[in-house]
């Protein structure tokens, strides 16, 4: 089974640019996202998306799918930020804000009375917190996606080791990345096998089939893990996974200039608006 992410990382418009330049651009932009407000974060998202879609020539639909997947986790956390409730005169809120049944309601965006003593609120502060969470999360994820689609894993690990990052961290990155695709491949094979035998037809059967898939996935994953351990031992594994890259790259002054200029502009915008 082939994975589009691996193929794209080895064949993209920025493939010949030095991995160190791309890592520097992603980390600087990520830093700007973390210390800025929503306006700068949205601007950073557009800037990084330009380099992913326009510079690296990654298919737009593939990029949007990769961007949407982590956002599902953000959407799950939104109710905790948006919803607040009060009981009698003593408020109880998800974000510990002072909302009272008898307080001024000018800061309340919407409310729903559940009973005579309980009311659900959506405050303007909650909406602002949710907006900050969404913009910061999606902008930060886009920075990490830039690394995934433009820098192959071997080059990323090689660059991190050149920067004297401890070997334990690079090995954890390598093994985690490897087993993500192992689980993905096993789950796909099991899903196809179940579907070819008439599975996943109705909701009740689908729930049962997903449960069986989860149990079999654990067994298959442990088998793959034991196979990997045997393969490493047979190849003389001594406790360190060495990564070698033979790709030739050129130092792109244009990319470095534009990337750094964009990050500086983002920081200047944040300084100017004072957010």
Report on the structure:
The protein is an alpha+beta fold. It folds into 2 domains: 1-152 and 247-275, no CATH class; 165-246, no CATH class. The protein has helices at residues 4-10, 19-34, 38-55, 60-82, 124-150, 153-162, 167-196, 203-234, 253-273; strands spanning 83-87, 90-93, 108-113, 118-123. A 4-stranded antiparallel sheet has the order 2-1-4-3. Helix 2 packs antiparallel against helix 5, helix 2 packs parallel to helix 9 (253-273) and helix 7 (167-196) packs across helix 8 (203-234). The longest helix has 32 residues, at 203-234. The radius of gyration is 24 Å and the shape is flat.
Helix content: 55-70%
The shape, in one word, is flat
* Mean pLDDT, all residues: 78
Q: Order of strands in the sheet with the most strands? A: 2-1-4-3
Unreliable parts? 88-104
SSE pattern: HHHHEEEEHHHHH
- Characterize the largest beta sheet: strand count, sense, and whether it forms a barrel: 4 strands, antiparallel
Provide the number of structural domains: 2
Return Rg in Å: 24 Å
Based on helices, strands and strand pairing, what is the structural class? alpha+beta
Ends apart, CA distance between termini: 47 Å
> What is the β-strand count?
4
Number of helices: 9
- Beta fraction: 5-15%
Tags for this model:
flat, alpha+beta, 275 residues, 4-stranded antiparallel sheet
Task: Tell me the layout of helices and strands.
Elements: H1 4-10, H2 19-34, H3 38-55, H4 60-82, E1 83-87, E2 90-93, E3 108-113, E4 118-123, H5 124-150, H6 153-162, H7 167-196, H8 203-234, H9 253-273
Helix pairs in contact: 2-3, 2-5, 2-9, 3-5, 3-9, 4-5, 6-7, 7-8
């Amino acid at each position: 089974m082939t994975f589009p992410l691996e193929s794209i990382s080895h064949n993209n418009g920025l493939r010949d640019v030095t991995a160190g330049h791309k890592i520097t651009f992603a980390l600087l932009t990520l830093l700007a996202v973390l210390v800025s407000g929503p306006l700068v974060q949205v601007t950073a998202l557009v800037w990084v998306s330009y380099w992913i879609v326009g510079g690296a020539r990654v298919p737009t639909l593939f990029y949007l799918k990769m961007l949407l997947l982590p956002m599902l986790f953000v959407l799950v956390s939104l109710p905790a930020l948006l919803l607040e409730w009060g009981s009698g005169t003593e408020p109880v809120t998800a974000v510990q804000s002072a909302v009272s049944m008898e307080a001024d309601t000018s800061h309340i965006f919407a409310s729903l009375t559940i009973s005579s003593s309980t009311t659900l609120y959506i405050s303007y502060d909650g909406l602002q917190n949710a907006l900050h969470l969404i913009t910061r999360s999606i902008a930060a994820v886009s920075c990490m996606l830039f690394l995934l689609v433009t820098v192959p894993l071997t080059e990323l690990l090689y660059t991190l080791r050149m920067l004297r990052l401890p070997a334990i961290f690079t090995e954890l990155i390598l093994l985690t990345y490897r087993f993500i695709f192992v689980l993905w491949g096993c789950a796909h094979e099991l899903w196809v096998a179940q579907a070819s035998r008439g599975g996943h037809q109705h909701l009740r059967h689908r729930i049962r089939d997903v449960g069986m898939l989860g149990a079999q996935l654990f067994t298959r994953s442990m088998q793959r893990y034991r196979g990997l351990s045997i393969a490493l031992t047979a190849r003389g594994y001594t406790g360190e996974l060495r990564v070698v890259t033979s790709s030739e790259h050129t130092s792109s002054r244009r990319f470095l200039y534009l990337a750094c200029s964009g990050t500086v502009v983002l920081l200047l915008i944040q300084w100017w608006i004072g957010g």
